[in-house]
Specification:
By secondary structure, the chain is α+β, with helices and mostly antiparallel strands. It contains 18 helices and 23 strands. It has a six-stranded mixed β-sheet with strand order 2-3-4-1-7-8, with helices on both faces. The protein has a six-stranded antiparallel β-sheet with strand order 10-9-14-11-12-13. It has a four-stranded antiparallel β-sheet with strand order 17-18-19-20.
C-alpha cells in the first residue's frame, strides 16, 4: 500500500522521512522538487502555500475597474508553484493513502487541503498532528492518524478572501485618489490599517501632551550605619513644596509612623505562548518577524516545539527527558534546577488543545540561533523552578508631612538564578519600630514633570494587538513588518511617518470604521466560528462585503480631499532639508533605473544632488552638518544611525 505524505516545507519532509525510516530513506527529484522514499512511503515537502487567491487576470489593471466594484468580483485560486503541482500529481499515482503532515494550525490545514485539491479523488486521506518534529512526536502522530479539519481550512480561506477584497479595493482607492501608483502605491489592509491607527493615535497623544511640573522631597536617613531613602508624594504647588522643604531640612529627625515586614513568594513567569515569546525576543534585540523566522527554523530542525500557539498551560510532557537533553547545553543550570525544582510547572491563563506552550525538545549547540534558543530554553527551565523568596519592608515617616519608603532583599533566588532577563533591584532598609526617631542625614527637593504616554515598541504593540483582537498569533508579527516595509512607521520606539499619518487620517475622515480595531476583531471572531462549525464561509464573506460597501459609500466623493492630504504628507516625508547652494527644497527623487537620491527642487537651474543608501528607511530630522548639507537618519536591519549626505563625516 503506497502512502504519500505531504509536508509543509522541504526541511520538514526530509526530517520526517528520516524519523519514520530510521535514517534509511532515499532521495529523488521530479521537476526539480525533492522527495524522499522508503518502504511503501513517499514524502514530499511543499513551499508553504502553493496556491494564491487573487483576482482574475482581466481585473489586474488598477484603472480598469472602479475599486468598489472589486468587492463583488469572485477571486480565483492560482497555482504559484507549477513544479510542485507536477511533482505532487506524479507521486500520487498509485497511492492508496495520503497523509497530510503540514503544520497543525489554520494555515497548515489550508495548505494541506490546497494540495489535496490538485490530486485525484477517491484516495483515502488522513491527518498527522504533531507539535514538535521529534522521533517521539512524529511516530506517535503517525500511529494515531486523524481526519482533515475542513472547517479549520475554511476559516483560513475566509481570512484570505476577506483580506484580499479589503486590501485590494481600499489600496486601489487610496492609491488612485492620490495618484500614487506603480511601486509608490499606498497600502491599506484589514488588520494593517487599524494597527497603524493605534500608532498614529499614540503619536497624537504625545504631541498634544502638555507636561505638568511637580516636586518631590526626599530624605536620606540613617540607622545602625545603614543609609536609606524616603520620599514625599507629588506636590504640585511649587511654593508649598519649597516651604515644606525649608522646614524639613531644618529638622534633625523623623518619626516612624508605620512599619511592615513580610516575606513574599515571587513566582516564575508562565510558559511561552507566541505573543509573550515575540515580546521578550524584541527586548533582547530581535524584531518579531526575525524572531519568528528563527523559531520556525529551530522547530523544523527538531529543537523546539511549534512556535505558533496561544497556550500557556503544559500538557503532560516528558520533562525529565527534556531536562536531560538541556543538560548537554546548560549543564550547571540544569544541576541547579534539579535542586530547586517545583512540584508542578507554572501555568498561564490561556489554555488551548492544539499545541503546547513553546518549549525546547532537544539540545541545540549551534551559534547562529543560540540567543533565541536560550531564551526559550531558560523560560522552560524557570517554569519548573521554585518561587523566589523576597523580603519586603514598607514604612512611613512623619517630618512636617508623610514620607514613604520601602526595602527589598532577595532571600532565596531560586528561579531568578536561572533567568538573566529579569532583575530585581535590592534596597537595604533596617528594621524599624513605630514611634522611633530616625536621624535625617540630608533633605533634597527635586522638580519633575509628568511624562507623555510611551511610544509602542514592537513587543508592546504585539501585546496591544492581541488585547484588541487584531490579527492572530501567526500574523501579528507580519503586520508590523509590513508597516515598516511600507514606510508607514519608523524607529525602535515606533513613530508614524507622514505617509502613515496621512493614510490613517484620510481614512478616518472618509470612513472611520476601517481604522477601528473593533471591526477587524469582529471578523476574526467570525472566522473562529467557521473553524468551530458555528458559521458558514459564505455568511462571513457576505458580512465583510456589506461592511466594506458601507465604508465605500462614505469614501466616494472625498477623493480630492484624500488626495490633497496624502500629497502634502508625502512631500513632507520626501523633504530632506534646504539646498546649501540655492536655498530651495531638497527632495527625494528616483533615477531612471529606480535608484533613490536627493535632488534640488530647483532643477535644472540648480543641479545639486546627493547619493542615498539603497537599502533601509531614510528620513530627515531637521539636522544639518557643519558643511551645510543635511544629515539623514538611516534605519536598516534594526540599527539606526545618522550621516551627512555629503559624506563629510
Amino acid at each position: 500500500m503506497k502512502t504519500l505524505v505531504i509536508c509543509e516545507k522541504g526541511i520538514a519532509a526530509r526530517r520526517i522521512a528520516q524519523i519514520l525510516s530510521n535514517g534509511k530513506y532515499r532521495q529523488g527529484k521530479i521537476a526539480g522538487v525533492p522527495y524522499y522514499y522508503f518502504d511503501d512511503y513517499v514524502v514530499i515537502g511543499l513551499k508553504g502555500h502553493i496556491m494564491k487567491l487573487d483576482y482574475p487576470k482581466e481585473f489586474s489593471k488598477w484603472n480598469g475597474i472602479p475599486p468598489k466594484n472589486l468587492i463583488d468580483v469572485e477571486p480565483v485560486k492560482k497555482v504559484t508553484s507549477p513544479a510542485t503541482k507536477k511533482a505532487l500529481k506524479e507521486l500520487a499515482k498509485g497511492a492508496s493513502r495520503i497523509i497530510i503532515a503540514t503544520d497543525y494550525d489554520r494555515e497548515g490545514e489550508l495548505i494541506g487541503v490546497e494540495a489535496l485539491s490538485m490530486l485525484p479523488e477517491g484516495i483515502e486521506v488522513k491527518r498527522a498532528r504533531f507539535s514538535a518534529i521529534t522521533p517521539y512526536e512524529i511516530k506517535r502522530a503517525f500511529e494515531n492518524l486523524g481526519e482533515v479539519d475542513y472547517n479549520l481550512s475554511k476559516s483560513a480561506e475566509a481570512r484570505q478572501y476577506v483580506d484580499l477584497i479589503w486590501g485590494a479595493s481600499l489600496t486601489r482607492f487610496i492609491s488612485i485618489s492620490s495618484n500614487q501608483l506603480g511601486k509608490d502605491f499606498l497600502s491599506v489592509g484589514r488588520v494593517q490599517t487599524p494597527t497603524l491607527s493605534l500608532i498614529v493615535e499614540r503619536e497624537k497623544q504625545i504631541e498634544k501632551f502638555v507636561p505638568t511640573p511637580y516636586w518631590i522631597i526626599k530624605l536620606v536617613l540613617e540607622k545602625n550605619g545603614i543609609k536609606f531613602e524616603a520620599s514625599s508624594d507629588k506636590i504640585e504647588d511649587e511654593e508649598k513644596a519649597k516651604k515644606i522643604y525649608e522646614n524639613v531640612r531644618k529638622r534633625r529627625d523623623a518619626i516612624v509612623t508605620e512599619f511592615e515586614k513580610k516575606t513574599k513568594q515571587e513566582m516564575p513567569p508562565p510558559p511561552y505562548d507566541t505573543t509573550s515569546f515575540l515580546k521578550d525576543a524584541s527586548y533582547i534585540g530581535y524584531s518579531p518577524a526575525n524572531a519568528m523566522k528563527i523559531a520556525e527554523e529551530l522547530y523544523m530542525n527538531g529543537y523546539i516545539s511549534y512556535p505558533r500557539t496561544d497556550n500557556t498551560v503544559y500538557p503532560p510532557l516528558p520533562f525529565d527527558s527534556i531536562l536531560k537533553k538541556l543538560s548537554k547545553v546548560f549543564p550547571r543550570d540544569i544541576e541547579k534546577l534539579i535542586k530547586i525544582r517545583r512540584e508542578k510547572p507554572t501555568r498561564g491563563k490561556k489554555y488551548s488543545h492544539d499545541h503546547p506552550p513553546i518549549h525546547p525538545v532537544d539540545a541545540y549547540k549551534g551559534k547562529e540561533h543560540q540567543k533565541i534558543y536560550e531564551l526559550i530554553a531558560r523560560r522552560f527551565m524557570v517554569t519548573l523552578a521554585k518561587n523566589a523568596l523576597i523580603e519586603e519592608k514598607k514604612f512611613k515617616l512623619e517630618a512636617e508631612i508623610i514620607f514613604k519608603g520601602q526595602g527589598k532583599k532577595i532571600i532565596e533566588k531560586n528561579w531568578l538564578e536561572l533567568y538573566p532577563y529579569i532583575k530585581i533591584e535590592e534596597r537595604e532598609v533596617p528594621d524599624l519600630k513605630e514611634g522611633e526617631r530616625l536621624r535625617i542625614i540630608e533633605a533634597k527637593i527635586e522638580r519633575k514633570e509628568t511624562k507623555p504616554p510611551k511610544r509602542y515598541t514592537q513587543g508592546s504593540l504585539l501585546a496591544e494587538m492581541e488585547k484588541l483582537g487584531l490579527g492572530t498569533k501567526s500574523t501579528r508579527h507580519e503586520i508590523i513588518s509590513k508597516l515598516y516595509q511600507r514606510k508607514y512607521i519608523k524607529g525602535k520606539t515606533i513613530s508614524p511617518t507622514p505617509a502613515g499619518v496621512a493614510v490613517t487620517e484620510a481614512l478616518k475622515k472618509g470612513a472611520e470604521i476601517i481604522t477601528k480595531p473593533e471591526m477587524t476583531a469582529m471578523l476574526e471572531e467570525d472566522m473562529e466560528k467557521i473553524a468551530e462549525g458555528k458559521k458558514s464561509f459564505e455568511e462571513v464573506i457576505e458580512e465583510s462585503k456589506d461592511i466594506l460597501k458601507k465604508a465605500f459609500e462614505v469614501l466616494e466623493g472625498k477623493e480630492k480631499d484624500i488626495a490633497r492630504e496624502i500629497k502634502n504628507a508625502l512631500y513632507k516625508q520626501n523633504f530632506f532639508g534646504k539646498c546649501p547652494n540655492c536655498g530651495s527644497d531638497l527632495v527625494l527623487r528616483k533615477s531612471r533605473n529606480g535608484k533613490r537620491f536627493i535632488g534640488c527642487s530647483n532643477y535644472p537651474k540648480c543641479t545639486t544632488t546627493y547619493p542615498l543608501p539603497q537599502k533601509g528607511v531614510v528620513f530627515f530630522e531637521g539636522e544639518y552638518c557643519k558643511c551645510g548639507a543635511p544629515k539623514i537618519t538611516i534605519i536598516y536591519r534594526g540599527k539606526k544611525w545618522k550621516k551627512c549626505v555629503a559624506n563629510c563625516n
